[in-house]
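Q: Given only this backbone (224 positions), what sequence would you predict?
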């Protein structure tokens, strides 16, 4: 049996992603599926901006194992369908994005929302409701500033809601700052991180490697 004691954490730059977290807003515990850095190539240099960690409900392992248990980490990494099953799976995802360098809220959300819009348009899911949700999403960030170590948390529910929280460190707030009831937007946030055009290939690789190990265990639990 894989338990919380045997799930390892991941270090990304100076950031520690613990093996299990519990959100006071939901009272649920989530295990670390994977973590990696997000950055951009600027003037020939890879500039690191954010450490990303994707946490999952423990039932995610059984759900994913149904189709992916017999695949190797390399096969998982190469399969877009595997990551789409994470994004669309019938389990909660809890995403932590902690800043490596300072970012202003409007600057950060502009890029995130542009990526989400591009994905939704490509999938044919961008309509009036999504346009309104994006506007509300951007509004939530307008007065935010993220120094190094500050964190954005996303809670992606299978029913389509997206919970948003802000923290000056890695502490999960007791209450969510905003909740968006729009499934295409909720899924797009994670899709842009680990999907066809990922902002963090390192996160994708970490998910493939770690979930491969977890799926080999038929009695996976984090004990909550």
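A: Predicted residues:
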């Amino acid at each position: 049996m894989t338990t919380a004691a045997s799930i390892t954490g991941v270090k990304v730059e100076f950031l520690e992603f613990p093996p299990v977290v519990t959100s006071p807003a939901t009272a649920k515990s989530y295990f670390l599926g994977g973590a990696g850095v997000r950055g951009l190539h600027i003037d020939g240099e890879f500039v690191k901006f954010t450490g990303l960690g994707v946490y999952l409900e423990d039932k995610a392992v059984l759900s994913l194992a149904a189709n992916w248990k017999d695949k190797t980490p390399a096969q998982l990494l190469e399969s877009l369908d595997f990551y789409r099953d994470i994004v669309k799976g019938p389990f909660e995802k809890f995403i932590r994005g902690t800043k490596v360098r300072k970012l202003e809220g409007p600057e950060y959300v502009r890029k995130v929302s542009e990526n989400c819009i591009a994905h939704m348009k490509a999938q044919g899911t961008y309509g009036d409701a999504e346009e309104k949700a994006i506007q509300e999403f951007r509004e939530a960030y307008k007065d935010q500033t993220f120094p190094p170590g500050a964190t954005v948390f996303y809670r992606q529910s299978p029913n389509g809601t997206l919970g948003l929280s802000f923290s000056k460190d890695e502490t999960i707030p007791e209450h969510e700052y905003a909740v968006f009831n729009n499934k295409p937007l909720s899924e797009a946030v994670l899709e842009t991180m680990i999907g066809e055009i990922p902002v963090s290939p390192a996160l994708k690789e970490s998910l493939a490697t770690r979930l491969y190990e977890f799926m080999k265990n038929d009695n996976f639990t984090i004990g909550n």
